[in-house]
Amino acid sequence: MTVTYPTVSPLSCGYLSPPASKFLADALEGERLTMPSMAFLIQHPASKSKIVFDLSIRKDLTTLHPGLQAHLKTRIPLSSENDVKSALALGNVEASDIDYVIITHVHWDHTGTPSDFTSATFIAGHNTDKLLKNEMGPDLYNPFFERDLLPADRTIELPPVPGSKNGEVFDKTRGWYWQSLSPIHNAIDMFNDGTVYIVDSPGHLPGHLNALVRVAVHKWIYLAVDACHHMRIFRGETDFGSWKDEKGRTVTIHKDLDAAYETLGVLRKLQREGLNGIPVEVVLTHDGEWEKANGDHFFPSHL
């Protein structure tokens, strides 16, 4: 029997240019990083499902919180001219054709315009709703979060990863449960066929999700999102950038630095050793060099 594997198509969306010091420990004074904020279309042929993974930057920035609009002036050059909806249209796919939208986390450059996806079921990590409502304590308070970002009647918030009960089904309709795929600690087999996994990826922000997709008999694609923002960090050439917050504490872009280092170690191991002997390509959402090198694979093409 011939197996038809899912496809992963990068979507050409917006870009931003933050201070390099927010990401790279050895950044030069005044240096900026112009980086894409890629999203991806995953198509699962067996179920005929279309999944949008991440929503990139919102096209209409004027609908964002006024304070956030002011903050975005520190991210120029910035573009939202192309968004997920326009990228899908390049392959004659409408936003209403999308079955699932996976919200990897709720930072502004990943949440796009959820209201475009009128038929989709949204999937978000544990505590996403509390984050949006600023109920996670002062260290996670963000005045720019939108309480009503996601449609309450069409959003599945994943449960916390298990302690000793790995393998317990939490969604009987879909047969979903957390399982380990060494070295990945917690993942959900989205279609119960070993081809598309939602991966718990702790460190950056509570509920941060990655994805692992089997695109061929001898290839996996791992979508790492903000587990790592630059390949120089991934290669071990520099460390995460840090700065002092308003309380004088040294902080990084990651809310749980120890967990971020552990997740980074998992990504490096996957890239180095593969998964069960099958090569894994790790893709970083903000990797401009990867975007340029893989331009021919963007939707309506695929990796």
UniProtKB/TrEMBL annotation:
Pfam families: Lactamase_B. The keyword Metal-binding applies. Keywords: Hydrolase, Metal-binding, Zinc. Its cofactor is Zn(2+). Residues 36-286 form the Metallo-beta-lactamase domain. The keyword ATP-binding does not apply. GO terms for molecular function: hydrolase activity; metal ion binding. Belongs to the metallo-beta-lactamase superfamily. This is Metallo-beta-lactamase domain-containing protein. It comes from Cladophialophora yegresii CBS 114405.
